[in-house]
Give the backbone structure.
Amino acid sequence: MNDRERTILVVDDAPGNIQLLSGILKEKYKVKAATSGEKALKIANKLPQPDLILLNIMMLEMDGYEVCRLLKSTPETRGIPVIFVTGKLTREDEQRGMDMGAVGYLT
């Protein structure tokens, strides 16, 4: 599978952040976007599933930690890698994300 066939799901409740990340990624990947945790979970459960999820932590309705917990608790979505992309800077925040099953944490 080449990069153009890979799909990245960008999850953030700030449209500007989605535009920024999508703009960077769209040259090499298919990009899907979700503005809430609920929408992200729906997209992740549809075929074809995303190959990677870039997930913000600080969202209003459902935070990224909860989205990640739900993704990792379901056999159908457990294998999708999650990278947190967030403004939360503490080592404790990062450790919490990694303990939840994320494969990366970018600030």
The mean pLDDT is 95. The domain at 3-51+62-82 is CATH 3.40.50.2300 (Rossmann fold). DSSP finds four helices and five strands in the chain. Residues 37 and 66 are 8 Å apart (CA to CA).
